[in-house]
Amino acid sequence: MKKAFLFMIISTLSFSLMNSVVKYLDHIATFELVFFRTIGSLILGTSYILLKGIPLLGNNRKFMIFRALTGLIAMSLFFMSLKYLPIGTAVSLRYLAPIYAALFAVLLLKERLKPIQWFLFLFAFAGVIVLKGFDKDISSTGLFLVLAASVFSGLVYVLIRKIGNGDHPLVIVNYFMFTGTVIGGVLSINNWVAPKGKDWLLLSSLGIFGFFGQVFMTKAFQIAKTNLVAPLKYIEVIFTLLVGVFWFADVYSLWSLLGIIMIITALITNVIIGNK
Asked: What is the pLDDT along the chain (276 residues), one digit of tens a residue?
């Protein structure tokens, strides 16, 4: 468990740094950020797949393409939301994705939820209402974008479950990265902002942070029980809040913090109960 905890710390820190770089590069167009985020991970992922002799195209190609497109929409909407919201708030709201994943699973996979889980979902949404309803500084545009991103992220979880164990996790991720590189590159042509100086280093780091975040999260889930590891994902919220305060000088009202605490508490409890 100690090793799994260490892996999740590395993973959540990597994702936090990646999101922080995206926030910092707010002068770069969204799809250009998507392009740099995905091409770095694509190069690393493809190199690893070829080195290990893993079939590059996989088996369940139709669903992997669908997952890639859905994930691309989710990523793009989330990156857009970072231009309007404090980074800690955006990351917290994105974590509503498991709720939508559970609802999609009920509708599409005919899975069942425990009554307490429905209550926890309502409690999490109450946190969103507290966040927006009492903190007038929260951007409505940013809120809409990040909630839409979490819906598509929830659909991604269900599609991954639908794909199952028939394909290597890195192959599934690689479909996503290839799609993001191609579409992000094409859509950024007309709005391309030429990187200058340290922008090149920061843009290059997006793929590296994202790749290591994904790899170490996968490793953690491989060596420890899901109900012990999954709640550790929310350490990313703590890291990101701290980055927001000390790097971006974000100020969180008591209502914002209360809303975030309600959301994260409900989601962590749901993970624990759902895996019992």
From this structure: 678 788 888 999 999 999 999 999 989 999 999 999 999 999 999 999 999 888 888 888 888 899 999 999 999 999 999 999 999 899 989 988 878 888 888 887 777 878 888 888 889 889 888 877 766 778 889 999 999 999 998 888 888 877 877 788 888 889 999 999 999 999 999 989 999 889 999 999 999 998 888 888 877 866 766 556 767 788 888 889 888 888 888 888 888 889 899 999 988 888 777 666
Residue-level length of the chain: 276
Q: What share of the chain is helix, strand, coil (3-state, %, to 5)?
A: 80, 0, 20
| The model's pTM | 0.88
Conformational region of residue 137, where left means phi above 0, alpha means psi within -120 to 50, and beta covers everything else: alpha
Residue 195: what residue type?
Answer: P
129 vs 202: CA distance, rounded Å: 35
Is there a contact between 8 and 232 (Cβ–Cβ < 8 Å)? Answer: yes
CA 55, 61, 63, 67 torsion: positive or negative?
Answer: positive
